């Protein structure tokens, strides 16, 4: 119970970090506007706020995972995070392939059934949209957040530190998988509850990779494959779309 309360406390701190990061971005944009004129402000300030707030959240989550992992590993950060070498590499590769297949199915469903796309639509700007923007800095920030920072921070926090802590307390694998997947799902449904249903397969595959792969590196590999392919698919779609 205290472990889960601690997890919730860290998530709350991460949200506070997101708010502070967005506030800092607002201050910087306001300063640029007053000093250099309105033309110095990017065309989509709301997207910038969302990106910076999301980065702030993920950075705090990553720092929390590293801190708790060090404490749980008696000074050994890797031990507290379960950052062991991947075992059953072929099986983990199959989980990565399963994520690619599910992503392809998901994209197909969204394309054929607009109602599903609206059901899972976020109330915040889509971080994967607008890849054809001219602002290189925004595109780079978007790519780093989605393909690198988010998978690393989320895996080290939920299926790294929290998974290891639950297992050390004697919880069964199924219970551990549930207690790490549910908050991860709820976190992704904060601004779009319908998205949770579409992420359940991902949560199951990540948990299976974590268990059979022997450590968080396996689930991290699977998670980064999923997000990386999503970014690649959006980039290809944008390139073909701009060529029409």
Mean pLDDT metric: 86
Poorly predicted parts: none
Number of domains: 1
Total strand count, please?
0
- Cα radius of gyration in angstroms: 19 Å
Q: What is the CA–CA distance across the termini? A: 55 Å
The helix content, as a percent range, equals over 70%
The shape is globular
- Oligomeric state of the chains? single chain
The SS-based structural class is mainly alpha
Please count the helical segments: 9
Largest beta-sheet characterization: none
Give an account of the 3D structure:
It is a single chain. The protein has 244 residues and is mostly helical. The chain has one domain (2-243). The protein has nine helices and no strands. The protein has helices at 2-36, 45-72, 77-81, 89-112, 114-119, 136-168, 173-188, 195-213, 216-243. Helix 2 runs parallel beside helix 6 (136-168) and helix 7 runs antiparallel to helix 8 (195-213). The longest helix has 35 residues, at 2-36. The relative contact order is 0.14. The mean pLDDT is 86.
């Amino acid at each position: 119970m205290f472990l889960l309360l601690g997890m919730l406390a860290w998530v709350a701190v991460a949200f506070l970090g997101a708010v502070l990061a967005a506030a800092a971005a607002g201050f910087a944009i306001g300063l640029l506007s007053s000093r250099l004129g309105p033309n110095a402000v990017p065309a989509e300030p709301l997207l910038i706020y969302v990106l910076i707030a999301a980065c702030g959240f993920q950075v705090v989550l990553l720092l929390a995972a590293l801190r708790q992992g060090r404490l749980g590993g008696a000074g050994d950060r890797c031990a507290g995070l379960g950052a062991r070498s991947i075992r059953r590499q072929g099986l983990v590769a199959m989980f990565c392939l399963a994520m690619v297949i599910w992503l392809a199915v998901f994209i197909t469903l969204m394309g054929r059934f607009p109602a599903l796309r609206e059901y899972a639509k976020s109330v915040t700007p889509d971080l994967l949209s607008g890849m054809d923007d001219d602002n290189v800095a925004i595109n780079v920030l978007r790519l780093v957040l989605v393909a690198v920072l988010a998978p690393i921070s989320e895996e080290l926090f939920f299926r790294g530190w929290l998974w290891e802590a639950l297992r050390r307390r004697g919880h069964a694998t199924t219970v551990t998988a549930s207690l790490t997947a549910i908050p991860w799902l709820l976190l992704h449904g904060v601004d779009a509850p319908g998205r949770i249903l579409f992420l359940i397969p991902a949560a199951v595959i990540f948990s299976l990779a974590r268990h059979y792969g022997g450590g968080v590196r396996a689930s991290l590999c699977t998670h980064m494959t999923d997000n990386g392919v999503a970014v690649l698919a959006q980039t290809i779609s944008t390139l073909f779309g701009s060529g029409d």
